[in-house]
Amino acid sequence: MALATGCRARPGKSRDNKTGSWRVFKPVFDHEKCSKCGMCQTLCPEGCVHEDAEGFFNPDYDYCKGCGICAEECPKEAIAMKQEEK
Amino acid sequence: MLEITEGSHAVAEAVRLCRPQVVSAYPITPQTHIVEALADFVANGKLDAEYITVENELSALSACVGASAAGSRAYSATTSQGLMLMAEVVFNAAGMRLPIVMSIANRAMGAPLSIWNDMQDSISLRDAGWLHFYAEDNQEATDLHFLAFKVAEDPSVQLPVFVCFDGFILSHTYEPVDILTQEQADKFLPAFAPAEKLDAKDPISFGMYATPEYYLEFRYETNEAQKRAKDAIVKYGKEFGALFGRDYSAFIESYRLDDAETAIVAMGSMCGTIKDAIDEMRDDGMKVGLLRIRVFRPFPIEEVAKALTHVKRIAVLDKNVSLGSRGGATAIEVRDALYGSTIPVKGYILGLGGRDIRKKDIKEIVSLCEKGIGDQFYGLRKELI
Amino acid sequence: MAEKKKTCDLFDCGHRACGGCGASLAARLVTEAAGPETIVVSSTGCMEVFSTPYPETAWKVPWIHSLFENAAAVASGIDAALKKQGRKEKIVIMAGDGATFDIGMISISGAFERGHDFTYICYDNEAYMNTGIQRSGATPLDASTTTSPAGSQSFGNKRPKKDMPAILAAHGAPYVATASIAYPADLRQKVEKAINTKGPCYVQVHAPCCTGWGFEGEQTIAIAKLAIETGLWPNFEMVDGKVTKVKKVVRKPVTEYLKTQKRFRHLFKPKLQEAEIAAIQAIADRNAEKYGLDIKLPPRKE
Amino acid sequence: MKELRIHGRGGQGSVTAAELIAVAAFEGGVYAQAFPAFGVERRGAPVQAFVRFDNKKIRKRSQVYEPDYIIVQDSTLIKDVNVFLGVKPGGIVIVNTEKKPEFKVPDGVKLITIDATSIALKALGLPITNTTLMGAFAAASGEIQFSALENALKHRFPGELAVKNIAAAKTAYDTVKGAA
């Protein structure tokens, strides 16, 4: 890739950095307990929790750093942090 | 049309004709008349620009960075302490490849405080990545602004430019200057249309940081842009000449140098006085000539070396000093250009802090150079040392 | 079915903030509230570094970084350029507390006085996190940082936090607010309000830093809430210099907040520093008095 | 090349006089250069300004050390400053004074005294003598035409003020011409 003038870039390349590998603990979402409030999505610093067609939420493990905010803040305790198998 | 006006006012007129959309500057002697004139143009509808009355020079150039990145032609002016307060942004603007043009009414650096002229200010920032143009008279100080914007904005260059002229000696002097008409200026300098800008339709990140995997290449590329600026200066300098009769394609000017045995090398307004002195020395049978450097960055290494191959000795006059070295910046550059040659190059630091430079001084320096005496401050008041 | 809106639409995944970073959440929430027609100006700081290593920018809106101290001046130039070009994009500055409270103060003062049209967001994590947790003018009393370390002769940072909102309100800013990542709806609403208010507006966002303050990443939101619940972070809104909205709380003692973070650990171990804690409690009490933070509970029925 | 040095005090308009003399000279078809002795002088302090005239482009930038003409706006300067220093033989010195001169100019130099203050007070109501002395200079030196001076003043000053300044300059011009 040729160097851009003035150290500029268009968006997109950030996604090359798959921060999911940083994880020690992994959030596991239990849709049975989920009330679809969306707090997990709202408070995720990565912006990597996405809503599916049924209105449930799922983390994108490519980017989830496993910080655990979603699990901590879930009002229904529907997210559990499990140790990552490496 | 030739008219007699103050240097600062001629420069302000030129800037007005370049149609900057954003002017951001902070007053400082001896640049003040320029920014006052521009503020007056804006206040009276003669210049359709946003004039930002910033709180200091650092913000003056910072606002230009923002404006230029957002796609507007941006201009500032400063000198001396103001330039140094900007220093961080000076490097930044060049690294971000923003084609800002800034007038520098050259002035000494404190301490001790001095409002008077020398070139220590801009010369101290010679490594920042800006192109450096140095004017001999107000005609050049005026014309070089058009060239500056044109070269800066060339897609192959994209670098900011200092247009330097001696504070007071040029900025406050009334003399005849041919100022272009708006029609002429527009013909030479089209509207600023950068390929990239801050724009919601095409979101680009400007001024990202570079890790060691990239930084070296960015510096290399900025240096390459300096080299490409040489081609742009030749091309647009010629174009300016073809349109208006004043050709600025040369980085250097030779005055009675062809058969000279002693060459004086200098920049800026002292070159006028030097030319008068040379004429008188020539009348006395002395073979003296001048090599004037107009473009200091990119430094015309080959051109300088070529122009000086035939001389027996060289006296380089610097209105700046790289303290702790053998002399001034021009002398250091000239020695570098002549590396491997046996022609003696002697440097003379003079005129610092507004000390007047007279014809007799030039003659005395030539005489010192002929005796092989140099690499020194010239004109020191012995009684003070 | 149309694809659901993603929260990474304007601030992308793949950025290099610590897991649980309050500032990265702030960046996401602010860009969401501001929308795609926004130009972001970032000062040097942790956010700039974690979001823009060349060529991997996380920003999907136009974004510019220049220097540490000049974001407000750069934004001034953008404002002038947009005005001249007849463009309607909004300008949002994202700057840390070091850039805002300390080094950028002159440029902020100048830009606010000139009345440019932008929204200045300070993501306040209460120290210089980019360079390794040195104190700033936003560091609270007694917080231990690498340049205000607690030691045998010191309880940490010697001074309370600078009152930046009051300073900017005094500049005549039409809208000044504090917000917290713990209350995203309130934060978004304030950012939107600031953006839609003409002139220079200021929103100071409390953004806890797990690394700098010493707590586990999942606690970021909980700690931000405690700051508000103890009265140490008053969440309010000022329109034309007058406080118009305040988040009222049933206040908890400040120790509830302090004990959650390593930066205040010296106040509890090896022994409880009652006088210092009392001084911090007094700050919370003054905040409660000044902003009317306390919910007055109805007297309990017999 | 001919050179003029103007001595005055801060606030007396020496720099303006130099500029307007250059403007008038340029209108007359010669190349002119005007500049102040750049300084930080405040109101009342001694100041200098310079003008050069030539029929070709002026390149020299040093200050004026050997003037062909000297204008002294305020005769009280004579005891503080060596205002006549370097004046060329055959040169002309114009001094604003109401009294008979109590000073001596160098040999071979022509001295013209004029009560510019009274002329200025009468014409302008102010003791600002720069434009008056410009009239005297035009008459004494022949470097500038009075009509060019008149145009320069019209260009610099608005309406009534221009008329008054021109009147002051004309009185001085006629006085010097009459004495010649």
Task: Describe, in plain words, how this protein is organized in 3D.
By secondary structure, chain B is α/β, with parallel strands linked by helices. Chain B has two domains: 2-244, Rossmann fold, CATH 3.40.50.970; 252-384, Rossmann fold (3-Layer(aba) Sandwich). In chain B, 40% of the residues lie in helices and 19% in strands. Chain B has twelve helices and 16 strands. In chain B, helix 9 (270-283) crosses helix 12. Chain B is globular, with a radius of gyration of 20 Å. Chain B starts with a strand and ends in an 8-residue tail after the last strand. Chain C is 35% helix and 16% strand. In chain C, helix 1 (22-34) packs across helix 7 (184-195) and helix 3 packs parallel to helix 5 (105-114). Chain D is an alpha/beta fold and 180 residues long. Chain D has one domain: Pyruvate-ferredoxin Oxidoreductase, domain 3. Helix content of chain D is 37%, strand content 21%. Chain D contains five helices and six strands; from the N terminus they run βαβββββαααα. Chain D has helices at 14-27, 116-124, 130-141, 146-156, 159-179, and strands at 2-9, 31-36, 46-54, 69-72, 92-96, 110-114. Chain D has a six-stranded mixed sheet with strand order 2-3-1-4-5-6, with helices on one face. Classes of the chains: A alpha+beta (86), B alpha/beta (385), C alpha/beta (302), D alpha/beta (180). Chains in contact: A-B, A-C, B-C, B-D.
Summarize this structure briefly.
The complex is a heterotetramer of chains A (86), B (385), C (302) and D (180). Chain A is of the alpha+beta class and 86 residues long.
What is the number of domains of chain B? 2
Number of domains of chain A: 1
What spatial order of strands do you see in the largest sheet of chain A? 1-4
Mean pLDDT of chain B: 98
Low-pLDDT stretches of chain A = none
Contiguous helical run count of chain A: 2
Extended strand count of chain B = 16
EC number (chain D): 1.2.7.1
Keywords (chain D): Oxidoreductase, Pyruvate
Domain Pyruvate/ketoisovalerate oxidoreductase catalytic (chain D): 10-174
GO molecular function (chain D): pyruvate synthase activity
